[in-house]
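As a warm-up, study this chain.
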Amino acid sequence: MLRMNRITLTITFVVLGALFAQSAHTSELSDPTRPSGYTTNPRGLQATMVSAGRRVAIISGRVYRVGDRYRGALIKQIKPYEVVMNRQGKIVRLRMVPIVKK
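Now compare it with the structure written out below.
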């Protein structure tokens, strides 16, 4: 009986893990707390998530990682508030906030 429960528990975790992995690779994000009818600017850098093991950017509503391409540019770095890309040998930067000149 105990062995059966372990097998059932293992299968449950494998199935849940597969479902989670599949949902983690979706490219569109939706915010369940967003009010009905609320719209945002669908273009440009909307968010970055930077941690020790993960760097992700949301650009025009899609999820991108280092090494992905956005409009033909290769994403080289994802920093807080900024994505650095290389397009045909030129550095292109997307920023969430403008650079302030003093």
